[in-house]
Design brief:
CATH class of the domain at 291-467: Alpha Beta
Distance between the termini: 31 Å
Number of helices: 15
Strand order of the largest sheet: 10-11-12-13-15
Order of helices and strands: HHEHEEHEHEHHHEEEHEHEHEHEHEHEEH
Helix content: 25-40%
Strand content: 15-25%
Length: 477
Amino acid sequence: ADYVRYLTAAYHREESLAAKNAIAQILVNSRMAAFGRRPICQDTGLVVVFAKIGMSVSIDSAYSLAELIDEGVRQAYLDPDNPLRASIVSDPLSSRKDTKDNTPAIVHVDLVPGNEITFIIAAKGGGSENKARFTTLNPSASVSEWVVDTISTLGSGWCPPGLIGVGIGGSAEKAMLMAKEVLNEPIDMFDLLARGPSSPEEELRIELYTRINALGIGAQGLGGLTTVVDVKVATFPTHAASKPVALIPQCAANRHIKFTLDGSGPAVLTPPDLSDWPEMDLCGTLSGSARRVNLDTLTKEETAAWRAGETLLLTGKMLTGRDAAHKRLGDLIDTGRPLPVDLKGRVIYYVGPVRAVRDEAVGPAGPTTSTRMDAFTEKVLSATGLYAMVGKAERGSVVIDAIVKHQTPYMIAVGGAAYLISKSIKSARIVAFEDLGMEAIYEFEVEDMPVTVAVDIEGNTIHKSGPAEWRQRISAH
């Protein structure tokens, strides 16, 4: 609820129309997910558990703590009424086979005085996790300079507006652990700004909050006033020769919960109150400024007219494909074998949806980070005649060159609006690579799915022009 309150304040403060629309979609999506009791993002996360175990506690089980936690994760992620996406692969080096139940969890244990166990559990998305960074600075070097410089290079794949956790001191692993755990603290930047700092850590929080937002990155990297709603800092004593510094972003899907077990029975977890969310007319916001596109009759002449920053509402049939599917398509192209689906004249959406339940056509189905498909893009565009791509965040320079060469624009959907997007998907069927699970190629039929043109056929990119414009505007004030 604290994130929702801060994001609502950011929405009212935001002056960039593109960023304001993105924040509105995140807030509406979040409220819909709370009402429908479904995930706010299709990436339902790596489960990270911080367990504070009282030293007087006795756990009556033949299983280890990690095994007990994994069984809890298994039951939660396979709940037939609200299945979550299984994203964990068992072998990170070669086969990368999905474990099918999102286990194992990442478990951190502290022994503390007392006779209770306190759990802090976070569902950490891969897009923000992939932007974690670590360095060892010279003792006299500026932490602030390194953090701001690093944030400026991360792009928008971590789905801002969000939080930044910074761990300073200890050792390499201690700094990373602090940066991860501090993200679970309550968001309180407005209170801190109102009362003023009372420690060097709080001074650094305010400095970083101000300087990161001054970068103008904005919601989804579209340019705007709010890139972070808070910055959290944790410190620990360190070696005299060292200054370890870790940085971990937290995306707009800010999911964590804290509860205590004392042996008297299960913990009771209270659902959020829908009054925590603002009421918004998203349809009115989008429909007035958006171009409607029929995917079933799409032509190259139409896509050539799209311009970076423009909002589109897509209706018709589109294909999906993520990392594993692109790898297989690339292998087939390299060996001259036929592709299992014809991509000519089609639009492809980089997504791995949650499994549908009840009357859903598909579960939450937001975009994944597009840069992971960059290595395959030129090959796929050259071989298939694809018309357009939809994903999340910026593309690399090689892909922008390929977009211009093949006249194939790239659009973005809002990361953090997966449940909202799923409501625009009227049907879904697997058409290739069924064994890949959520990474299979689907055909979606969509109606008024909102996207923003991120790179047009002339190579203009909103992820460069938007932040540059707002960085200049902010500095002028």
